[in-house]
Amino acid sequence: MGLTGIQILGMLPKKNCKECGFPTCLAFAMKVAAGQADIAACPYVSEEAKEKISEASAPPIRTIKLGSGDHTLAVGGETVLFRHEKRFEHPTAIGLLLRTDMAEDEISERLAKFKKLRWERVGVKLEPEVIAIEDVGGDAQKMADLVKKVREEVPEAVLVLMSEKKDVLAAGAQECGEHKALLYGVTLENLKDMAELAKETGFPLGVKADSLGEAARISEELIKAGIKDIVLDTGPRGLRELYEDQVIMRRAAIKKRFKPFGFPSITFPFRFTENLVTEYMIASVLVAKYAGMIVLSDFRADLLYPLMVERMNIFTDPQRPLVVEEGIYPLNGPDENSPVCITCNFALTYFIVSGEIEGSRVPTWLLIKDTEGLSVLTAWAAGKFGADTIAEFVKKCGIADKVKHRKLIIPGYLAGIKGELEEELPDWEIVIGPREASGLPPFLKEWKAA
Ligand code: SF4
Q1: Does 161 share its domain with 145?
Q2: Within this chain, do residues 256 and 140 fall inside the same structural domain, yes or no?
Q3: Rounded CA gap, 54 and 242, in Å?
Q4: How confident is the model at residue 129 (pLDDT cuts 50, 70, 90)?
Q5: Which residue of 235, 298, 380, 385 is surrounded by the most CB atoms within 10 Å?
Q6: Which helix (H) or strand (E) is 375 found in, with range?
């Protein structure tokens, strides 16, 4: 279990020297206990205490880092069973499968899909991160060649190299250089060799088990062998077992601090179906419960996009709404005669409203008022988007210097504050806009400054 702030304070030198960036040792200890500061920030704490505190304050599921530099991917690091308890830390990594026996054309087509199928939604990038390369036939040179090709063509991809043969994984790892790949394929039989390879390369290992019990055994042996970075696969026994395994591992790691399961999992939904739609449905369950990585047999835009959106929704922090910055957003090149609309800074609202305005091609000034991420009506009910706060923002934001007219379009849902807002902004005419963003294009096309 984690240590309390007072327990951590007992292990600190209590110099109150502020070198850790906190005013007192107590303040620092409290932050370390809350997981908001790293014990290494205190230069005076003993190595022994550092190790003890680091271990006690580490998340029950270890964070595994793959890739390198700007293309580093973190999986695991989870601390809760349910998102509303705190948040989920690292989104399930989504990957595409390649095999060493695939034809050149097919590989090129898949790499092209990997590069192309990316989206942006409410300011968040939706991108796959992983390419898994499965060895077929045990040819180390083929693995090395394919890794080289992928590294050259898609340097941002994080790699999972799949083989039960040490020499094949070693050949692939060699081509990765500093770009850490997951070396997947550790069984009870090859465990020693794979542990050696992990030590030589510094790359994490992926356990390939046939059951939950076997996964625990392999994991335990690897821990004993000094391997710290592990990813777990409990095997393709059945769909129900796959789901149960994810839940059991997460519960055991978080509730019981069962070390062998204190690692993220890797899953392969295509092992349970030959139907691509069903495969993505399985993946959608695994995103919610609790896969660290999912490797898909193929990418298809209409299936991948909803999976990515689901992932985004599950892995956003429920305590911090997605927001955009307060300010004036010029859309479609507005000038001094262009309409002025105002809305809240809830990211979803912003992207829907700005999308409709951009689609209308009408040059428009969009004012975004900070409502702490609340939507229009919620913000109004919370006193963050009432006439007084809107008026204050309109006066200070500088829109009056950008337009000749004095007409402000407010969301239709705020029609009730029109009179009050006109009192607060006597120089402005308040125009009630449409209730829904979809009504903006026809509304703006009809709009006239004078
Ligand atoms: S650096 Fe260490 S000794 Fe100094 S205030 Fe921080 S915790 Fe205390």
Answers
A1: yes
A2: yes
A3: 32
A4: very high
A5: 385
A6: none
Q: Which of 18, 24, 25 is the pocket-test mutation for ligand 1 (most atoms within 8 Å of CB)?
A: 25
Residue 443: pLDDT band by 50, 70, 90 thresholds? very high
DSSP 4: P
Q: Ligand 1, residues 6, 11, 22: which to mutate, most atoms within 8 A of Cβ?
A: 22
Same-domain status, 358 and 405 = yes
Separation of alpha carbons 375 and 353, rounded Å: 12
Spatial separation of the C-alpha atoms in residues 256 and 60, rounded to whole Å: 9
Structural domain of 433: 327-446
- Going by CA atoms, what residue is nearest to atom 7 of ligand 1? 25
* Residue having the nearest C-alpha atom to atom 2 of ligand 1: 42
Any atom of ligand 1 within 6 Å of the Cβ of 21: no
15 Cα nearest atom in ligand 1: 3
Determine the distance separating the centroid of ligand 1 and the alpha carbon of 50, expressed in angstroms.
13
234 and 381 both lie in a single domain: no
Q: What is the CATH number of the domain that holds 372?
A: 3.40.50.11600
Pick the residue whose CA is nearest to atom 8 on ligand 1.
25
pTM reported for the whole predicted model: 0.78
Tell me: pLDDT of 1 over 60: no
* Region 344-364 average pLDDT: 94
The verdict on residue 221 lying in a domain is: yes
How many domains, in total, are found in the chain?
Answer: 3
> Is residue 321 one of the residues assigned to a domain?
no
Q: What is the ipTM, given to two decimal places?
A: 0.98
One domain, residues 191 and 228: yes
Counting Cα atoms < 13 Å in the Cβ hemisphere of 207 gives: 31
Cα distance between residue 97 and residue 200, in whole Å: 26
Q: Are residues 48 and 86 in the same domain?
A: no
Beta carbon of 335 within 6 Å of any ligand 1 atom = no
The residue whose CA is least distant from atom 3 of ligand 1 is 15
Find out whether the beta carbon of 419 lies less than 6 Å from any atom of ligand 1: no
Could you identify the atom of ligand 1 that is nearest to the CA of residue 23?
Answer: 5
Task: Please give the Cα distance from 28 to 54 (Å, whole number).
Answer: 14
